[in-house]
Amino acid sequence: MRFTSGLVLLVSALSVAALAPRAKRQTTPPSAGDDSGVIISPSDGTSVTAGDPFDFSVQNSPRYSSICHAPWTPVHVYLLAAKPTTADLNSTFGFSEYLYYFGDYILNLDGIPPPPNDPTAPPPPILTTPNLGTPFSGSTVYIAVVEELSQCDPLEDHADYALDSRALAYTE
């Protein structure tokens, strides 16, 4: 009788654990400077001047592409005063404090149209450096890309986003 009762309790406990929702981890992709990151260009240390264009290129996060292959991925592009961390992101995968917001774009990986509420434009190949004012001239600013991975299977063990950044030398 004890063996049967113990077995029933063990099976019940395992069943409850198996049905419980798994928490999603929030981790960062390769660090800045790692050429396997989300940002392809600009590279770390690129000099940018207010009003001038600079090359911009992003790709689907290599760290998560083997785990999550969605047909499209929303990305959000910011210019920040400090090197970003995942702790700086708010509940909508954005930054509450930023110097400039370049916008929302979509990486279309399979040519399938994105859902109606997602942005539809791909990231532009060139961005223009905003005028941040004299206080920032000669300082390091950071271009940051937040890639949403919300199209992934929720049972997969992945983050909700990938964050990558590059340091830029800003002059006015």
From TrEMBL:
Residue segments, region Disordered: 24-44
Keyword Signal: yes
Signal peptide: 1-18
Superkingdom in the source lineage: Eukaryota
Keyword annotations: Signal
Protein name as annotated: Uncharacterized protein
